Amino acid sequence: MKGNIEIETEELTNQVLDFCKHIAGSANIISIAYVDNYSFKTPSERAIKEVMLIIRNYHPRMISYLKTIGVKTVFVFAVDQWVFERDVERGLLGEAVASKLVFPYTAIRGKEYLHEKEIELKKRLVLELLENLTLNFPELSNRIQIKPQYFLYEVFLNRMRVFPLLVYDLAGLMGCLEQNEEQELIAYKEALSQLEGESKISFSEGYVNISQKFISKIKNPKRKIINLSKNAPRTLFSSLFGVLPQLMSVVTQNIETFLKTQRVNWVRHLDLGCRFIDPQKYVYIPTGGGLVSLSERIDIKGYAERMILKGQNGNIQVEPVGGMLNDVYLINAQIDGHEQKVLAKRFKDWAGFKWFPLSLWSFGARSFAVSGQARLSKECAISETLRTEGFNVPRILHISNTERLVFMEFIEGENLSQAVKRIAEAEIGEDYSRELAPITRTGEIFAQVHSRNITLGDTKPENMLIKENGTIFLIDFEQATHGGDKSWDIAVFLYYCGHYLQPFNSSDKAESIAKAFIEGYLQAGGKTEDIRKASMAKYTRVFSIFTMPPIMLAISNICKRTQT
């Protein structure tokens, strides 16, 4: 990266060259560069100058030197070319040496060589960040849109997480990065262009999109462990090889602030007049209301004022509408005699005792997404996927990822469990075929969803809303996923329906419900084998705790006997 950096004095540079030649001896010098150009001090104010010297076949492999030149202290880090290149290629030293190319540097010798290695390093770092996004947002990864600035700021931020003392020296750099953003992004854009040529990403209207080919390769739990493990050597080697020049720079140039840190929590209380840029503001999630940044921070009150009232006068009422594992609120806005309703859903982390009964209940049949982040991602990704495929789902209006809030269209309607309850209450001989019609239609919808290789996860009748005109809306996708167990969807729906039936003399009703659903499912192209699997013991065991055995048996027998 070649920032807008003041060129060092010719006299100092000549003396640094002479000193580097002395260090290299008869060995060939590949490159020399000033690598301390991230300090908020001007070159003339800096007491410490850091130099990276790369030498071919350098037998000490790595060694550092200190030399006083005039009023300057020059810190030279000499490294063998092979070691340096392995650090660039695969982080041999946790990028303790290679990361010098992440920050602004000034090449004294070997400019083209350093530029080539800079692109190679940044390409690898970009790939790692894409991997992390894919692993952290598995359902959203093929939909998120990324501005190239994300990679620039996230790489810087990661270096500060590994070696917090950089906070002092990076204050000036982070403060002026936005002014020189285009210049700073040149190397990253070159790296991204190469990745586009390898079909790992694509560009669309200035945004980077992760390719499905790349996502399919990365979606492996072991990849997350591998990526997390990379931070250990980065921390170790960055501390070992970076601590001396950084500590000297901090102490000599920031002595007043540094001394204050002995009395306070310096990570939280540093006041260097620097505004650090949140990289996540350059990563966007598509919603029905447009692109929303991952860094978006808005609460329910803020959403109502900013997105609903929009500066107008009006009355806003917020009321909780249930939710044991999540907080769900209805926002009711009255503006100029018109009513607007929005549903807000806050995704809480399921931990400790709250999560234990769920995991115990479904053990061996289904695993659940536990973290609020994961469930929010699934809700947004699957909802938008189904909406674009033509299914009736509430429109996602806005997202506040930091607050774990999703704002969505409120659908007026009756949930399907009410129809099941009317069947349960029907007298013997009473015709309830009208109530079976939406159940058949639900079977059709499930088959159509499954044909897109999507499973819904939580298919209780309560999660199907029937509008006055008979249109059925699907809701609640926080356990939905691409792929997954289709038989689980079928089992949840049918056995949950059975929960509402009377324990005695309701076997016929249970069979009618199962037949109506299966009829619709098969008519819409659903697979018979998925129906049959729903009768297996691993599913009936899970639901037997709240659905009576005769009802369970009646439903499972219908599933088991299903023919094409």
Identify the CATH architecture of the largest domain. Answer: 2-Layer Sandwich
Task: State the fourth-level CATH superfamily of the largest domain.
Answer: Beta Polymerase, domain 2
Question: What is the number of domains?
Answer: 3
Which bin fits the share of residues in helices?
40-55%
- Radius of gyration from the CA trace? 31 Å
Give the biggest sheet. Answer: 5 strands, mixed
Q: Measure the end-to-end span.
A: 64 Å
Instruction: Give the uncertain stretches in residue-range form.
Output: 1-7, 235-274, 352-365
By DSSP (H or I, 4+ residues per run), the number of helices equals: 22
Class derived from helix and strand content = alpha+beta
> What percent strand?
15-25%
| Overall morphology | elongated
Structure description:
It contains 22 helices and 20 strands. By secondary structure, the protein is of the alpha+beta class. It has three domains: 1-288, Beta Polymerase, domain 2 (2-Layer Sandwich); 296-409, Phosphorylase Kinase, domain 1, CATH 3.30.200; 414-560, Orthogonal Bundle (Transferase(Phosphotransferase), domain 1), CATH 1.10.510. The chain has a five-stranded mixed sheet with strand order 3-4-2-1-5. A five-stranded antiparallel sheet has the order 11-12-13-15-14. Helix 19 (507-523) packs parallel to helix 22 (549-560). The longest helix has 26 residues, at 111-136. Residues 1-7, 235-274 and 352-365 have low confidence and may be disordered.
Helices, strands, pairings?
Layout: H1 10-24, E1 29-34, E2 48-55, E3 62-69, E4 72-80, H2 81-90, E5 106-109, H3 111-136, E6 145-146, H4 149-162, H5 166-176, H6 181-184, H7 186-197, E7 201-204, E8 207-210, H8 212-218, H9 221-229, H10 231-253, H11 255-260, H12 266-269, E9 283-287, E10 290-293, H13 300-309, E11 315-320, E12 326-335, E13 338-347, H14 355-361, H15 372-388, E14 396-400, E15 405-409, E16 414-415, H16 417-425, H17 433-451, E17 454-455, E18 464-466, E19 472-474, E20 481-482, H18 486-499, H19 507-523, H20 528-533, H21 537-543, H22 549-560
Parallel strand pairs: 2-4
Antiparallel strand pairs: 1-2, 1-5, 3-4, 6-9, 7-8, 9-10, 11-12, 12-13, 13-15, 14-15, 16-18, 17-20, 18-19
Helix pairs in contact: 2-3, 3-7, 3-9, 17-19, 19-22
